[in-house]
Specification:
This protein is an alpha+beta fold and 256 residues long. It contains 4 helices and 17 strands. The structure holds magnesium ion (MG) (2 copies).
Amino acid sequence: MKKFRGVFLKNDNEIGLMREANRIVSRILDELGENVKPGVPTMAFEEICRARCDEYGVRPAFLGYQGFPFALCCSINEEIVHGFPSKDRILDEGDIVSFDMGVVYEGFFGDSARTFGVGTVSSETQKLMDVTRESLLIGIEQAVPGNNLYDISAAIQSYVEGFDFGIVRRFVGHGIGSHLHEKPEIPNFVPKGMTGVPLKAGMVLAIEPMVTLGSHEVEVLEDKWTAVTKDRTLSAHFEHSIAITSDGPMILSRSD
Ligand code: MG
Ligand code: MG
C-alpha cells in the first residue's frame, strides 16, 4: 500500500471494503440506539453486537485488542471511553451512554461511536451531545486534500471551546485501514509546536471528539480501561471513519 509521510493511502477498492466494514458498524450502532431505554442492563448491548457480528460474518475489532475483554465499549455519564458492558449496570432515566464499536471485514477495520440519551435528559446534557456530534461534522468538513491535519483539530477545538465545554486531550483519533490504529494521530486540539501532515486523497481517518461538561482531565479506573472525567462531569463521544477523496470527505460509517 502506498504511503505519504507514514500514512497509508488506500485505493478505491480498499475504500470500498472499508465502506462495507463501517456500514456494518453503523447498522449495529443504529440497533443499539433503538434499544436504549431505562431499565436495560448494558450487557444487552454487548450481546447484540456479538450476535450481529456472527450474522454478518465479521470479527469484533475490540474483543481481545490489547486485552480488552468485550466487543463493545460502553461508557455511561462521566465515563468517556473504554467502559465495560455489565449485567449489573442498568441504564437509568437521564443517563447518557456512549457506544464505541469496531469490526474487521475482509481484512479492513470499521470504527465508529455515538452517544445516546436514556429517556429524557436535561437540556445541558442534550447540548453536550449536540455540540459533540456537530464538532465531529465540522471537523470532517476540513478533511479535504490540500488542507493540513490540524485544520481538523482546530475546527473541532474552537467549536467545542466556544461553548465552554472541555475537549479531551488524552485520547485522540487515528488513521484506520488494515490496522485499527494507524498513523496519523488526530488530536481534537492543536498541539503546541507541532505541524500536522498535509491531507491527501486516499487517507482514511477515524475522527473522534470526546467532550466534557467540565475539565478535559482524565482518570483511568482500577479496571485499567474505563476512562472517566477527573471532575466526574458528563462526557460525550462521537466518531466517524471517513475517507479523503478528490471530491472531499466521504463518511464511511453511515447507514444507507
Ligand atoms: Mg472507536
Ligand atoms: Mg477510534
